[in-house]
Amino acid sequence: MVYYRENSGGWKKIGTTTATSYIRAAKYLKDGKTYAFTVRCCSDDKTTLLSPYKSSGSLLYSSKLATPTVTIAKTSAGIKVTWTKVASSPRYMVYYRENNGGWKKIGTTTALTYTRAAKYLKNGVKYTFTVRCCANDKKTLLKIYKIRATEKEKR
Fold this sequence. Notes:
With 155 residues, this protein is mostly beta strands.
C-alpha cells in the first residue's frame, strides 16, 4: 500500500500495487507543499497491513511557476516595490542589491508590495529589487531570480 502525507500531516492512502514503483500524478500535487511517501507491506486481501509507516523522507513540490512582474516607484516614503500575484505561491521573498553587489534579503511577505524606507537608502546608489516565490516555511524558494527592477536613488 502506498501512502503520502502533506506538510507533516497525517498519512493518506493513495493505493495498492504489486509494482515496485509508483508515480503520483502532478495533478494531485500542490505547489509549495512538502510531501513524504511511504510503502507498507500488505497481505493478498489488500487490507491487512504487515509493516509500519516509515517515511521516505520528504520533498518540496513546485511546478513551473510564473515569475512575478516587478515594478518600482519612488515615493516620499522611499522606494515602493510592487509585483504581480503568482498563482500557487503562498509567500514572496523580497531582495535588493546596491549597485552591482550581492543580493540581500529584505523580508518575506504575503503582500504584493513592499516599501524600502528612505532612511535605508543612500544618495547616488543604484538599487535593484527582485521578488521570488516562496513556500509557507518562509525559507524554500520556488523560483529563480528573473525579473528585476532598478532605481537610482537621488535626493
